[in-house]
């Protein structure tokens, strides 16, 4: 928040007097209307106590999601990822990464350099997926992926190498092991037959075997949030939380194994993909949802699902803002009571407009341009009101996200019985990266809600590429350590057997 921008008690910026306004004739009337709008927007303001309540509710849901039986009905799914450690700095080597989640997919060659503590993207290729393949037999989809991977390896002269692969597959899956992930359902326009209910790693391996011209090594399935955490983990070994605030929102963190009731074993830790976007799907956030949140949810593709996400993320923020602007105009507080056809059109007020309008230097002039493009009769006062609406909604988004993040940080500290926790959050997403004030607002609220946690934020570099490679590298390291331990145990057993035999002979 700049020194020229005042804030109210909730941390939301107050409207500044516009440089565009040349001493209006009825200044008192203008200020009165701004105060009226500000009072009207109080419904979006969240007190510190409300945010603490939200955090407490989420913590209960985290525990439900981790439970062996209670997870079935938990709105926050707390999915085990089978990622059992973060990087320790000894990882090295060459890896492939495959990122599939839309009409294009990427293949990458990534090199982990131990001496320089760096993860380098050496080469990458984007491959299109034609519509007929997206809707055809699953075998053809994986044949297409295998063919593109073959061309990529051929172009780099790597076909004779058997490289490990990190696989980011951004569809709803149930992960059984780090290399076994069952597709629950297709989304994003895909509807390939014969894939739902199947292990996608096995389907990829079968397609590569059908070609017969190259092979891949071990495979690690990676959620994009986990990739974000791991891509930062090599740079900062205290990174144990990953968070995305972009089109959607989600987070992962390292949980104590003894609390992960759905997976055998009590030693060590495992990364849990919280899927916190579903928080509130059981109605637990009804008291802070506004009529506009309810309307956005009702008209979405998935009503009743991802309640928390719809109050925070980039896919929905612009639409909430559009509905608020319409209501203000209907109540004669904006645009002289006039509403254009463009403003009545769903999705017309884009989330990126919020970021552009909140910029200190150019925000008000950009607001004028945007409103003009939407066919709205916007004077300087209208621009200030629209800016105030944008700031109010983005502040609420940052506060809710901060409450959720503080819940996780506080849980990690409590789990480890620490007086003070120092940790790092690997973070990605367009809302966090591109909004001029979102990140600072989030940081400020986290400090208030998690006062015993010293949290550093590190922006991810290509979580779906470098991050998935790091997951694979860490999985290989742990497997090698396990193998060495087994060999060592075997040697000790052998020595003990020899000693027993000598005693018997004596």
Structure characterization notes:
By secondary structure, the protein is of the alpha/beta class. The chain is 44% helix and 17% strand. It has 15 helices and 13 strands. The strands form three sheets. The protein has a six-stranded mixed sheet with strand order 1-11-10-9-12-13. A five-stranded mixed sheet has the order 4-3-2-5-8, with helices on both faces. A hairpin with a 3-residue loop joins strand 2 (93-100) and strand 3. Helix 1 runs parallel beside helix 12 (380-415) and helix 2 crosses helix 12. The radius of gyration is 26 Å and the shape is globular. The model is unreliable at 1-9, 11-25 and 490-498 (pLDDT under 50).
List the helices and strands and how they pair.
Blueprint: H1 27-40, H2 48-66, E1 79-80, E2 93-100, E3 104-113, E4 118-128, H3 131-134, H4 138-156, E5 165-169, E6 173-177, E7 180-183, H5 200-211, E8 219-222, H6 224-233, E9 239-245, E10 249-256, E11 269-273, H7 291-298, H8 314-330, H9 341-344, H10 351-357, H11 363-373, H12 380-415, E12 421-428, H13 430-434, H14 438-449, E13 453-459, H15 463-505
Parallel strand pairs: 2-5, 5-8, 9-12, 12-13
Antiparallel strand pairs: 1-11, 2-3, 3-4, 6-7, 9-10, 10-11
Helix pairs in contact: 1-12, 2-12, 4-5, 6-15, 8-10, 8-12, 10-11, 11-12, 12-14
The assigned structural class equals alpha/beta
Looking across the biggest beta sheet, what order are the strands in? 1-11-10-9-12-13
What's the β-strand tally?
Answer: 13
Enumerate the spans where pLDDT stays under 50 for 5 or more consecutive residues: 1-9, 11-25, 490-498
Provide the helix percentage.
40-55%
General shape: globular
Count of helix runs: 15
User: Which H/E pattern describes the elements?
Assistant: HHEEEEHHEEEHEHEEEHHHHHHEHHEH
Radius of gyration: 26 Å
Mean pLDDT: 89
Percentage beta strand: 15-25%
Distance between the termini: 83 Å
Keywords: ATP-binding, Glycolysis, Kinase, Nucleotide-binding, Transferase
EC number: 2.7.1.-
GO molecular function, one term: glucokinase activity
Domain Hexokinase N-terminal: 37-234
């Amino acid at each position: 928040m700049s020194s020229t921008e005042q804030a109210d008690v909730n941390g939301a910026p107050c409207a500044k007097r516009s440089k565009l306004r040349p001493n209006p004739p009825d200044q008192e009337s203008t200020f009165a209307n701004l105060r009226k709008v500000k009072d009207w927007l109080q419904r979006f303001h969240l007190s510190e106590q409300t945010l603490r309540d939200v955090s407490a509710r989420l913590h209960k849901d985290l525990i439900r999601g981790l439970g062996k039986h209670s997870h079935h009905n938990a709105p926050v799914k707390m999915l085990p990822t089978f990622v059992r450690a973060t990087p320790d700095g000894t990882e090295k080597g060459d890896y492939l990464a495959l990122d599939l989640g839309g009409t294009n997919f990427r293949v990458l060659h990534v090199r982990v350099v131990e001496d320089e503590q760096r993860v380098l993207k050496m080469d990458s290729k984007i491959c299109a997926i034609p519509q007929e393949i997206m809707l055809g037999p699953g075998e053809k989809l994986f044949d297409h992926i295998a063919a593109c991977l073959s061309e990529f390896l051929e172009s780099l002269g790597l076909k004779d190498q058997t490289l490990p692969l990190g696989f980011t597959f951004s569809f709803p899956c149930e992960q059984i092991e780090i290399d076994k992930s069952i597709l629950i359902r297709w989304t994003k326009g895909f509807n390939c037959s014969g894939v739902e209910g199947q292990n996608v790693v096995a389907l990829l391996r079968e397609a590569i075997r059908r070609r017969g011209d190259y092979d891949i090594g071990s495979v690690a399935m990676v959620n994009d949030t986990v990739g974000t955490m791991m891509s930062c983990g090599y740079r900062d070994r205290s990174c144990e939380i990953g968070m995305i605030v972009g089109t959607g929102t989600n987070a992962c963190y390292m949980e104590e194994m003894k609390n992960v009731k759905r997976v055998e074993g009590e030693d060590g830790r495992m990364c849990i993909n919280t899927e916190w976007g579903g928080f509130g799907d059981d109605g637990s956030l009804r008291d802070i949802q506004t009529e506009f949140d309810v309307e956005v949810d009702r008209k979405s593709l998935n009503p009743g699902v991802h309640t928390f996400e719809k109050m925070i993320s980039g896919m929905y923020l612009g639409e909430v803002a559009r509905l608020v602007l319409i209501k203000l105009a209907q109540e004669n507080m904006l645009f002289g009571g006039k509403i254009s056809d463009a403003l009545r059109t769903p999705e017309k007020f884009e989330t990126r407009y919020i970021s552009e309008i909140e910029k200190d230097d150019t925000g008000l002039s950009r607001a004028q341009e945007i409103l003009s493009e939407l066919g709205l009769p916007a004077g300087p006062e209208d621009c200030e009101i629209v800016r105030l609406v944008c700031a109010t909604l983005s502040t609420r988004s940052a506060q809710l996200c901060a409450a959720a993040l503080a819940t996780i940080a506080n849980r990690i500290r409590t789990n480890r019985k620490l007086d003070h926790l120092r940790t790092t959050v690997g973070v990605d997403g367009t809302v966090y990266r591109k909004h001029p004030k979102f990140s600072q607002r989030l940081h400020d609220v986290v400090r208030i809600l998690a006062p015993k946690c010293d949290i550093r934020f590190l922006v991810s570099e290509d979580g779906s590429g470098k991050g998935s490679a790091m997951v694979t590298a860490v999985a290989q390291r742990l497997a090698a350590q396990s193998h060495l331990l087994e060999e060592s145990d075997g040697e000790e057993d052998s020595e003990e057997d020899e000693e027993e035999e000598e005693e018997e002979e004596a």
